[in-house]
Records
---
Amino acid sequence: RAVRAIWLGLSATGLGVSLLIVSAWVVYLNHPGVSLVDGYWMGPVPWTPAGIVLILGGSALALAASGAAIMVGGDWLRRFLLVVIAVLPVVWWLTALGAVSFGRFRGPHPVELAYSLPVTAAVALIVPAIAASFLAIEPLRHDRRVRLRRVHPEGRITTPGED
């Protein structure tokens, strides 16, 4: 079930990024002389916040489901890496919800913070969600020791015509 939730979160994140790119592209095509980045800043109101909400929810779901899967079935190294990976999103969410002050920004407005600082949101939310998902989905490495057993009973080797 956790793997389904991870894929659902990653899919929602990808859909949100695609929605932001398409809405910026539409503005770029309809307004000659503007760049794609200007298209993001001038993006249509219902689509840009919807894309940001999909990114926020999807990355949070992917990170939470990955964390649950790693804590239940992961080894100590994956658990340690999960804690390291989760620090940045936790700090971002604390800032977005107003628990940590950041300049003139006063929360709780996660969509506003993600819209105002899109690169920071991408680095603090999308990249850790992908990294944690990779840790959770990648199968655990099995024991790589060679296990030999006898092929012939009692160590006797037979030739093809000797049965």
---
Amino acid sequence: MTKTFGGWHLCPICRKPVDNNASKCPHCDTPNDESYHEYWSDKASELSKGRGKRESTRKTMSLVVIVLLLLVCWALIVSLITITNRLSEAKSRVRSWADDYNALVQEYSVARNVTQALREQGAINVDSIEITRDIEVIRYVEKPVYPQRFNDPDIARDWVLSHTLPVVIIADGWSDLTNIADPRYDCDDYADDYESLALSAGISLWQAPVTDGQIWGVKVSNVTGNHVGLWTKINGTFYYVEPQPVDSEWRFVELMRAD
């Protein structure tokens, strides 16, 4: 509906005042008809709504563009900072290389001046000089191998049974025997030699006193009186090792469990 003001109204096309009794708008020749006015009023309203939507879309797109521009600027700033740091590191390395080079040139210059002075004095007669620097020498020392313990009683038993000392014959006054050993070679000498044999194989054995064939109440030998044998510990269990070449029954005997 066209809005009227007293005896005139606004033209829906040019929005200028028109007399209500005029047949058409004197400004744009729009017919002064009520239905025509309503039609163009509706059109104007639709155009206004469309203009509002376009304005809203344009504002949204502008905001998106601004956000994208900010992101691009942030990425450029980060890249610029990274490049600046890399250039600073490279500059420091180049400066260090330049210092080393200048030091080397200075050393060469000093050496050349000294050589020239000595040549002029007749102290030396050389055609060239070689500049060398001290080199750090690293010496590797072989780490000593310490004796180890057995980790398996079966392996220990096999090793003991397969490593036997030779029998030493003790005989005084037997003139028909040759290679007679010193009569003083007895059980503790066997223990010393067998302990040395084990150490040469990287195995630890320790000497143990035996009384009347027993140690810690366990029978380990048929020898009466005082005797010397060896012992070892495997996985919390103590074992007796007889160093003398006797029956295999007494060569390797379990004594006790520590736990």
---
Amino acid sequence: MKPAPSHPLRPLLVFLAALCLGAGVFSLSGSSAHAAVVPHAAAEVETVEIVQALVARDGDYLQRSYLVEWKGVPVVVEDPLIRVPYETGAPLRMNISKRPYPRAAKSHGLMNFTVVRQTPKDAKPTITSDPIDKAENLRAERIEVRVKRVLTAQDESFKYRGYTVEWDGKEAYVRDSLAQTNYKVGARIPVILMRLAHPDPLVATGLLGMTVAPR
């Protein structure tokens, strides 16, 4: 599939914005009617069992995440740097990031789940003499995919939403960073597909990310 033309720095900016949303890094400057009731940022660590490992690949680019059950509902735990693979049924330590809505625009907060980095002593990065060229591989395109699972969760005033979708014969994860969509199973939804070089120059595999496209 040929990527849609875009400014060379736009995919990087989009990806960094997505990472900032996931890490809870926000600018809360400016006034808002909701500011007084916005919840404080928080982080928790829990251990869960992997229900299903989700792996999607596009050439040299990889997305890996894990479907788990948390408080009785399915959620996806992201592994943004694809460091160490885990298998279905294995225990997984996850970080639950809770943060205010950007610029306190809404009274509820946002929540996401990421793998707590645990690198075994014998784990080594994939070394390559011909790493992906970072300047040439910051690519983004808008695609449409079909929803396979709808993932929602709430903990007090923090909300989470995401989707698993059918893509290239695999089940992939699509983040809804602002938890503001309401798509149903079977719907075709717009998604921004991002391909980026790994930030570690010693890792040959690039990063594949998907996020719900703005309406």
---
Amino acid sequence: PEDDAEVTLYAPDRSLRDKLGNADLDHIFTPQAIAAAQDQIAKATDAMLTETETALRRLRQDFAGLQQKPAAAGELLAAMVADAFAIKSKAGFAGYDLVVELAKSLQQLCEQSHAAHLTERDLRLMHWHIGSIVRLYDAKITGDGGKLGQAIRAELAALFPPVAQSET
């Protein structure tokens, strides 16, 4: 393309090379170094999954509280936003893409819900999101969920079409 004429090429930085000396990559990426790095990644993933499970437990408790104590809706919605955010960030690290998508949607729903005017529709949407997130996580369904993910998205769209402006 024409833009290539404007690209400036720079000589490689020699500072890393000077620090490493003449070491080749085989000397750096030994089987032991690779195993140690993989072990660290596995431990970090386990920690993220534990934190995700804790956030899921809190989310379920906060939602149950929301249903039982409507007077505390403001506080509980704020807690649910934090729970959904935690799930979104932690589950994403472990490859639970559909869980991340649903947690983000739940987070936005909780942020947009009015504590003083929670509707039955709001509560059903929250319940549906939480139930889907829990089931996907418990079944260890990672990625976009494949056909199941498509079915979940289609069901969500069918069950909860956008609210008309006059309803808001």
